[in-house]
Amino acid sequence: MIMRSLMFVIGSFYLILATAYSQQDFKKGFIVLDEDTIPGLINTKPFVGVPKNPTFIKFKTDPADKAIIYRVADLSHIEIAGADIYTRADIYGEDICGGEEEERYINPWMQTAWLRLIVRGEAIDLYRWNNRLYIKTDGNYFEELKYEDQDLPIYKKQLSNIAEHYGLSDKLSKTIEQCQYNNKDIGNIIVTLNRGKGKIIPLNPATWKLSFFLGMGIGIGSVDLYTLINAPTIHFTNRGLSFFSVGTVLSPSFTTLFLRFELSSSSGSFIGESAGYQKAPIYTYSQQNISSGISILNTFYNNGIEEFYGGLTGNQNFSAYKRNFTTVVLNGGGWEGNFEMKESWRSLGITAGAIINQRWGASLTAQPCGKFATNASVILKNRAFFLTFRYHF
Question: How many CA atoms lie within 13 A of 224 on its CB side?
Fold first, then answer.
């Protein structure tokens, strides 16, 4: 009863925090949809500090509205909080494929994507798409600054040609020779090519998002009981396990890895018997457990609606038991089960799951090992599977 009351208080606290944090990912901005400019709020999660350009956004015109998902094909332009600016463009590139040099071949490709504006200038704009940089001089043609070449990186040749076209070769030759393929070095060159009238658009810094969830689930498991006296192992099977949980997800904007912290309360009953007796006695016990866990997870797929992830999880467990044991008698000696715990116990597992619309989630967790001791010189080895349903705020 105490455990359930504690979990109710913690769950209420998490619910209050979740409500406070639920709107923090949305910032003011506008989108261009079918040539119409629409002001509103844009979810910045796909944008801040990410190494890859977003392929979708969530947008709403009013904080109370339900967010709408837009993709590259829907929007020609996005601006967020006067900083991040994205323009839709058809881009072309070539990939060198194959292993040995004589087997290599060039694979041309074309893709429509949102390009992030790095420098806005009167004559030349600089854009980035994932790890590639593009310049736009006129019209809607975006030329890639190419990195690889046997003698000299191609982007330096391209920048030298542009500098010569604008009569700035002498001024920029050394700078171009020393520049690296990054936003800062090439961005400063593009500003100079615009004769100082270009503007570098600041990138929103990498951030850590804190979100919350409530969960519930069911589990099945087994426990093997070993004693340090000469008595057989007792194998328990689970009659039924139910639990509920509260937790926090900490996800950085610059990687697909994220952390999940979860506090759960479970209860279940077990029944077991042991071999080695003419008439095997039956053992039963009930377990109540509070578990604090941390999971290291990686998102393998995310299209804005469905997200799939997997990873490792570890838990620190604090259990209480109600006992109903038959005395074990062997070779004239006796032992009676006494499950007062010496200390908390740990368990490790693997987990995989999915989240729909960044709200509803489900995961399956396998915990193949959990080992702990009791005051009665008893060791228990726990194995379990859990199916968890979560609602994320």
Answer: 11
Question: Rounded mean pLDDT of 25-42?
Answer: 87
Q: Where are the domains of the chain?
A: 25-200, 208-392
**Most confident stretch, 156-165, 193-202, 206-215, 229-238:** 156-165
HEC string of the chain? CHHHHHHHHHHHHHHHHHHHHCCCCEEEEEEEECCEEEEEEEECCCCCCCCCCCCEEEEECCCCCCCEEEECCCEEEEEECCCEEEEEEEEEEEEEECCCHHHCEEEEEEEEEEEEEEEECCCCEEEEECCEEEEECCCCCCEEECCCCCCCCHHHHHHHHHHHHCCCHHHHHHHHHHCCCCHHHHHHHHHHHCCCCCEECCCCCCCEEEEEEEEEEEEEEEEEEEECCCCCCEEEEEEEEEEEEEEEEEEECCCCEEEEEEEEEEEEEEEEEECCCCCCCEEEEEEEEEEEEEEEEEEEEECCCEEEEEEEEEEEEEEEEEEECCCEEECCEEECCCCCECCCEEEEEEEEEEEECCCEEEEEEEEEEEEEEECCCEEEEEEEEEEEEEEEC
Which residue would you say has higher pLDDT here, 19 or 242?
242
Compute φ and ψ for 255, nearest 5 degrees. -155, 165
Query: Mean of the pLDDT values across residues 68-75?
Result: 91
All residues at 6 or more sequence positions from 312 whose CB lies less than 8 Å from its CB, including other chains: 295, 296, 348, 349, 350, 351
* pLDDT-derived band at 134, boundaries 50, 70, 90: very high
Sign of the C-alpha dihedral, residues 13, 19, 22, 26?
A: negative
**Distance between CA 327 and CA 313 in Å, rounded?**
37
Query: Domain 208-392 is in which class?
Result: mainly beta
Higher-confidence residue of 166 and 151: namely 166
At 317 the pLDDT is 83
Neighbours of 39 (CB within 10 A): 10
Q: What is the pTM of this model?
A: 0.58
Which residues pair with residue 90 across a beta bridge?
112
Report the range of poorest mean pLDDT among 237-246, 270-279, 329-338.
329-338
